[in-house]
Structure formats: structure tokens, C-alpha cells
Amino acid sequence: MEPKSVQITRRLWLGLGALLIVSFGIMLWIGKDLYQTAPPMPEQVVTESGEVLYTKADIEAGRRVWQEMGGQQSGSIWGHGALIAPDWSAEWLHKEVMAMLDIRSRIEFGMPYEQLSESEQAKLHAEIKPEIRANTYDPQTGSIVVSDERAQAISQVAAHYMSVFSNDPATHDLREAYAIRENPVPDENNRRLMTGFFFWASWATVTNRPDDVKSYTNNFPHEPLVGNVPTASSFMWSMFSILFMIAGIGLLSWHYAAYHGKEKPLAPPAQDPARAIVVTPSMRATAKYFWLVMALFLVQILMGATTAHYQVEGQDAYGFALSEWLPYAVTRSWHTQLAILWIATAWLATGLYLGPAISGHEPKYQKFGVNFLFISLIIIVVGAFAGQWMAVMGKLGTMPNFWFGHQGWEYVDIGRFWQIYLFIGLMLWLTLVGRALWPAMRAKNQTSSIAGLLFLSTVAIGILYAAGLMWKEDTHISIVTYWKFWIVHLWVEGFFEVFAVAVISFIFVKLGLVRGRSATINVLFATIVFMAGGVLGMFHHLYFAGVTTGVIALGASISALEVVPLALIGLEAHETWKSSRATPWMQQYKWPIMFFLAVSFWNLIGAGLLGFLINTPLALFYMQGTNLTAAHGHTALFGVYGMLGIGLMLYCLRGLKPDLVWREGLLRSGFWALNIGLMLMMTLTLLPMGVLQLEANLENGYWYARSAEFMTRPIIDVLVWLRVPGDTIFAAGAFMIALFVLSLWLGPRLVRKPVNTRLETESNL
To answer: Which of 225, 410, 497, 499 is close enough to 457 for a disulfide, judged by CB 3.0 to 4.6 Å?
Structure first.
């Protein structure tokens, strides 16, 4: 008869397989529905008198112009993108409504709208609202028909944007407030085309779906003048999502109370078992990856500081015309992508290091593959970033931009050629890790399932990047958003979690602190919990991206479960802390474990509290694209995955340099500087600024919370300057960690004999 642990393991594998099949099946089904129900792209926009305002070709060409200048890195559309410039769809809507009100006011009352009484203004609101919300798209002809009066308003708004994106002195102050360089779109016709895209994006936000009372974007953004307010489904499913979260936390708490800690503690070995791991040539070759990690990390911080400073001076840096050489759209593109790149590089290197370490097998040509992949990463980074700079500076043109320049989609901005190259690189990484792990997966011992889950996560991380190849240059923006979050969400809130749990569990099993049998069951159970909310939870990113009510219901219900495993994060932290104090030689792993503890803390704060703050449909309706989402993004991305990347790097470095005394002062100072700096960044700037934007949105509408008028208020300037202490401390912490890594190779005086006694261990570490 099979042991009970084997039976449990088999059931968990079957449960995980069924969960993934059902979850991805639903995702594909929703994607098919989105293809059919996305906001229609008209063949033309015409007036009642027959004048053609924009054609489909105009709107699509205008979107390409917007993408070439940075796209979602210069303002946002439907709430997705950068935070300094306006949300163009929201601002266009407000300006168009105000222009229509003013035109109607002059016709009916003979005076500007601002001079009317409240009752007269209310009368005009009641007249304008049904006209602007009416769906005049004709599926038979493919035409959107607008009144001549509305066409006049569209012309006025278009003229404003044609001025903003030129070098017109009249709108210089706006370009400065938006951190946009002078004359970002030199060609006048291209500027006109871009206004067509802005109009269509705005039209989709306020036009009711056929036979419905809500717009294609579920009434986002908030614009009370024309009834763009939260839908009934947003209220209802926000309430249910909270109930689902409470139920999930209750069930998980019951499971821990019933099953956790039932085994007797495992007596730790007298000597460090990891010392027995033979460092193979390919494992040693991963060292250069960690040098690259620190280089990318430092450059990312520099780009972040530059990006933040643009919010103060707009176009300059202490008087130097920086935007003429390094525009905001470039610095923010590089800042966001470098964050993903250095964290991903740390994880890639960890996988390459641990593969042979787990199996004890060094495949043929493994070192060559590791070195080749490293060179490919360098080429991708340099080539992709150079192409983005050339695109934003107007040196590519719209045709080659899609392939080699700037795609304009936040987090997946690099040109298609570089995307394909990166996907090939990930397939190479998957192959290298997989063939090194293969003997361990076939061994059928206590850790074979952990090795299997580690391999599963590498497969998912590699293959899911193919979602970035699923759209074309002219693919509908709703469809692009759908596929984009297959990468962004499923990487970060899905399979990176599995990779992390499997790696950390292996580390503790290898150190003799956890039983392999128990670790296998715990990892499989944790993976099921993560995947239950992590896969279908992707849809909370799509609430306002042109989807139907069913996606809101599914996204709200399932994404609430993402918070469930974080509710018991204290238990995970406690177990990690106990492991760090289990035996004197564990002091050698103090700092990797300290970073793992930091992951638990920021998981609770960044992913848990700040994540759920903006998670429900009702909350996100008012908070999307504000600094509250930035607070969640910074604390979750770096606090969780960045800290984990550094912790994994330090564990690998301990194995690569086992006989060196670590400069504990650098690590201690760097660790606390990173955590304190991130906390100050969140509490002094991002949270208070986000709360002020939330209040502005509730009172006046989303357009105002993102407007130059609001973002140039003195209190906002003060809050931006308050980033300096946190950013400075954070940067100092990163520099100290980088200096520590450098010291492992450039500090020969640190070489010592292996630790043999407890006294020597404690005195040296």
C-alpha cells in the first residue's frame, strides 16, 4: 500500500492540474468573447450633414503616432499608463462635453456656459447627456454619426491637442506640466490623426453599449456631467468580492489550524549540508548574471529619480534641457522595464544555478548555454532600449517602430523583433533549467515533486511570454490589453509565486531544516492556493478595458482570493525566522533569510493591503491611474519580487563564494536602507498624493484628478519633493548591495578558511 504522503501528493497534483485546465479554459473563453464585444472601430466618423471627420485608417494611424511618441508612457488611455500627463480619453471627454455645453449655451442663452445660473446649466446637462451617450454606430455601414453641433465641439478639442503636441508657445506650460518635450509630433497631419484616436478612445468611454445603460468601458472614467458613474454591477460585485475574500481566509485559517505543525520538528544537521554541493562550471558561470542584476538595478534607480524629477521641472533638470535628449517617455519606459529585467535576471540566474545543484547533474554544453544566454540578454537590453529612444525622438518613423522601436504598451514596450528574441532566450533558459533538473524529477524521491513544480514554473514563465506575440500593430486596444496582462499578471501574481515557493522550499530542504515529504505537500498546497486566485484574478485589470459585465463579476470574485494566502503571511514569516535560528551555521544564510522575511512583510503591505485597496471594481473605478495604484505597484513589485530576487541572489552567492567572510556591515545597511527608503517613498509621497487624487476624482471627475491644474498645485509639489529622502536612502541601499557583490570578487583580503566551530562562525558573521 502506498504511503499516505504519496497519496496526498498525487491528489494535490491532480487538483492542481484540474484547476489550471479549468482556469485557462475560462480565460480563453473570455478572450473569445472580448474579440466579439470590444468597442467597435468605425469605418468613418461622419456628421449629420455628411462631412467625414475621421476614417478608420485615420484612427489607426493616429494610434500608431501615439505609440511612437511613447504611448502609455506619456499619459494614459482608459486609466492604463503614466501618471504625470492626463488620461487622454478622460480629458478629451471632459473638454468635448464642456465645448458642447458652451456651444449650446451661446445658441440658447446668448452667453458662455460659465455665466449661466445653476438651473440653466442643469437644463443644458439634461439636454447634452442623452446625445453624447447615445450609440449612433451603425454596424451595417460601419459609421458613427455625430451632430453638426458635436462636430464643432470635436473640432475645438482637436485644435487644442494639435497645439499641445506641437511647439506652439500658447501651450508650452501644458507641455511642461505634462513632462512632454517641445514639438513631440512635428508633422501636423500626424497630430490630426492622433486626435482621431483620442476621440474614438473617449467615445468608447461614454457611449452606451447597444440596448444597455452603461458604456463600453463600464462608465470609466468618472465624469458626472454625462452620467459616467459606477454601474450597479460594480457595486454588487465589489460587495460579493469582500465576502469571497472573508470566506477564503476562513477556510485557509481552518486548514492551518487543522493540519499545520502536526509533525515533530526536524533536528537540524550539525554541519551545513549545502557545503556538499559541487559548484559546476555552469553554476559558476551564473556569477556574471548577478553583476548584471546590480548594474540594471542601479540604472533603474537613476531612471526612476530622473522620471520623478520631471514632475517638478517638467522638461528640464536643474536648468538643463534634459527632455531634448532624454524625454520623460524614455526614462519612464526604461525605469519600468529595467525593474522587470533586473528582477527577472536574478530569477533566471537562480534557476540556472539551482538546476545542477538540485540534481547534481551538469549536462553537456551547459556552461556554453549559460554564457550564450547572458550575451543574448545584453544584446536585447541594448538593442531594445536604443530602439525606444530612437522612436520617441522621432528617428524611426511609424512603420519600423512596431518592430524595432516603442510599441507604447506599458511593461511590454519593446519592439516586436526584440520580443521574439527575448522569447527565444526564455525558451533557451527553459531548456537549460529543464535538462539540468530532469534527473531530479525522475528520481521519485522526497524532493522530486518540488523539482517538478520548479520546472513547471519555468515552463509557464517561458511560454506565457508568447502572449506578447499575440497582437499585431493594428490589433484592437482591448485585445492588446487582454494579452498584455497574460504576461504582466500571470508572471507576477501567478507563476513567479510558484517559482519562489519551490525555490525557497528546496533551499530549506537542502539545508536539512524541513522534511522533503512535508515540503512537497506544502508547496503543492500553496501552489493551488496561489493559482486559485492568481490565474483568473487577471481580469481585475480588465474591468474598464472594453469588457462586458461577466468579466467584472469573474474578476471581482476570483481576484479577491489573491489576498487569501497573504492573510497568514505571519506564519510563513515565523517559520522562516525559526529556520534562520535553528543552528549556528545558519548564520551564514542570515541575509538571504532576512530578505525572505522582507518579502513576507511587503507581501502583506504592498500586495495585500494596498493591492486589495484598489482591487474591487468600485474602488478601482475611482483609483485606477492614480498614485494609489503606483503605491501598490512600487511596494508589490520591488517589496516582494525585488527583495526576493536579492535574497535568491545572496543564497547563490553564498554557494559560489563559500569561503569568504561577508561584509555584514554593507548588507545590514543596504537591507535597512532599501526597506526604510521604500516605506518613506510610500508614506510621504505616493499614498498622500493618491488620497488627494481620489478626493479630487470623487468631487470633480477623473479628468480633474489627472489634470495639469491639479498636478501643479503647491501641495503636490511638496509631496513630490518629499520623495527625495526616501529615494536617496533607497538608492544608497542599492549602492551598498552592489558594492557588497563587487567586494566578493575584488576583496581578496576577505578569503578565509572554512568555518569549523560555532565560535568562529559567530565571530566572523
So the answer is: 499
